[in-house]
Design brief:
The protein is α+β, with helices and mostly antiparallel strands. The chain contains one helix and four strands; from the N terminus they run E-E-E-E-H. The longest helix has 10 residues.
Length: 57
Amino acid sequence: MHEFVFVKSTYSNAGGECVEVARNIPPTIAVRDSKTPGGPILRLTPDTWTKFTASLN
């Protein structure tokens, strides 16, 4: 089984309010809170991730 490789969002700040995203296991986009890396992981389809990030603008 492959493991997700998470990277911090480019929008993360120095205060620790960070989101990490993993895109290395198609067709899943994994998202987690960097303050709790052992916590829950939100798994999204690429289409859902695209719609979610587009809604943030």
